[in-house]
## 1
Amino acid sequence: MTETENQIENTTENIKLYSSKAISGATFLGGPLAAGYLISENFKALNKPDDGRKSLIIGIVTTIILFGGIFMLPEQIIDKIPRQLIPLIYTGVIWGIVEWKQGDILKAHKENNNTFFSGWRAAGIGLISLLIIGIGIFGYAYIESSNPAYEIYDSKIAEFSKNENESLTFYDNIGFKSNSTLLSELDNKVIPKWERNIKIINELDNIDGLPSDLSDQNKTLLKYSELRLEAFLLIKKAVSEDTDKYDSQLNMLNIKIENELKKLN
């Protein structure tokens, strides 16, 4: 074969492209938004403006879905996910897409010794994308923090906590209290406070605009409150009958209460 026959067809001689490596690096820094922009720039340089627009739109939409989904995840789940895992996943996905859509062109571009944009330029775009995402996140957080539902929620949770703390003083020096004193505390303070706490949680569920994570927390708080009330009613029964035959039931209730508290923590 002649040298001409061996030569790869050079259709990108006079244009600059972003390499898959540069796009991956920018994606790790700036997420799918950076990837969508760089891939779209490659398509535009290759005279495929429609594909370029689609890539940019997909990058924007994917970024909104990704970070919106992260915000919706409960905090306890987010805390268990390694910080680098999510960027590594979406960077790997983007690399695969680039190889699928532009891999052959980029390979030919490189083998023909044509020009690529520097990795530093791509990294700069990644940082700009990161800044845009950061502004979006802070804007979202500001809007959420001004949500009146939070103020209402906090005031009712403060009442819930006050009732909880005051009711649990029942256990202070319990061995030195007479049965009549214990029954008086249960009837006049402890049980009414947990009945009120159950009402508080039901009121919280009716707050307009309550975020989903707080709605999920309410379910656990309601279960916890119902278990507390059940336990104190059983204690009242045991004190009234002056018996310890309900101890095993109380122990099971206390285990369930601890499990709900772990979920809240």
## 2
Amino acid sequence: MTSAPPAIAFTGSPLDRADHLRADPDALAGQMNWRARLLKLDGLTPGMDDRGALAWGTLADCDPDAELVFLGLMEGKPCFAPVPAEGAEGPAYAQPQVWQAINLLSEQDLATYGGARSLVDWHARHRFCARCGAATEIAKGGWQRDCPSCDAQHFPRTDPVTIMLVEHEGKLLLGRQPKFPPRTYSALAGFVEPGESIEEAVAREVKEEAGVSVRDVRYVASQPWPFPSQLMIGCHAHAIDPALTIDETELEDARWFTRAELEEARAAGPDGTETLVFPRSVAIAHHLVTWWLEHDS
């Protein structure tokens, strides 16, 4: 197979992260002026203007007690986001207002929102030191938290997750979890564990969830996923044997789908076919399966 998938949701932010400003407290303070833009958030839900774009205000719109995170520079203007009182509650699919906004935002707005959401959500959930329990303070423009009690430094977390297409004789292995909408199947996925390479994580997860051993694991593409802070690492592998042994604590079902079945489900749109709903376009699984369909093995 050849090139990677096209632009993937939550990638392509227009922000210049301006690390040189983060690391200089005086320079960063100088950015908090009348030119600064404030990303409007209702908790973790994006504010939107009447054009369906992200809503921006000024620092005067911010609660004076809120912590501010420096997102970077956009068109030369400093951009900030407020840390909410509380972090995310529940899984991503249980947040309908957020998903409604995601379906309306442009690619660049979606990338800006995704990065901001992950960052401010991390701050809201990490206000106390993991070493000594004391209250921490925002540092480096929001890209760090410091503990004044024990001098520990804490950094925004990103959790690596492998998500993989497994192929055998022209078919793809897809699975579904009980929480998925009816007939929706997706690529198998799982967190990379300490001491594992990406290739080892792919092999372990596929074996654990579907009982299938794989070979020739290779990287395809990645996606930041801000629910709350995963990095989805898209891979492709070949099955050594197609026999399935499904771990029902992880999957409700797993099946081998033919190219024709997948093409038909993609063409059918959001409602899918009688047996399969294609992964939604905001997810990397959609792009991975599309990539596989459009390129020869």
## 3
Amino acid sequence: MQSFINRLIAATLLLTAVAAVPAAIAETSVFKVSKGENSTYLLGTFHLLNASDHPLPAEFQQAYNAASSIYFEADLQAAQSPEFQMKFFKAISAPSGSTLQTLIKPETYMALEAFMAKKQMLITNFAPFSPAGSALMLTMAEYQKLGMMPEYGVDQFFFSRAQGDGKTIGHLETIDEQLSFIANLGKGQEDEMIMSTITELNTLEKSVGDLKKAWRSGNSKQLDKISLKEMREKFPDTYAEMIVNRNNKWMPEIEAMLADKPTEAVMVGALHLVGPDGLIELLKKKGYKVTQL
């Protein structure tokens, strides 16, 4: 199991190549949602991938080709600005007058220090960060060791392609909204979040490998089991804020897309599509036809 910080990276804001499954018997994390003659594609993405994960399943390109407009979770253009870098640092920083050590229990700090020492990292370098920021930065560092980078992720891959192809590009959330989620991660459960992250980073390569296999083959039940079930049970507030509330907020925008003639492709973290509160289930309950490619 991945810690919920890991899941958020894999789902929202992350090995070796995953063996391709024969297309004749496999589905993917791409869905076509229809209402009469109108349709919109939902593509479950992995925000960080390896170069060896390309080419992506052909269904991703198929959905992209069919759409005149491409929507992403966040404003990826704004995320490349110096202003965003400043805001991001503020979002992961400890409140004024405090440090990481003052925000978590002594035993939690000692456990984190020991883990970082094994990774040849100094915990003092994390002093300016909040517990959520520390967990996020540490996790990102471990993903980078596996060669997983944003430039290989599904979102950035198609964002660059859409720019080159002159397609209309939109987003479901502002950068400020996304940074607000990061700033509030694990609020009230800081020690549990740190300890969970330490535990799960010890088996990161295997857990991410399992998640990627489930994503690539479109195994929605496995994605939910691996990544969301434990979050619902152990971190219900974070699950509500990061998954449920955002999905519900996006629904009117997706329904508006389905009410017009042009075809859109909406690319969001794969975990937003699966489970009882996922976009696929929400759309099915409203009577839309959903076909997994």
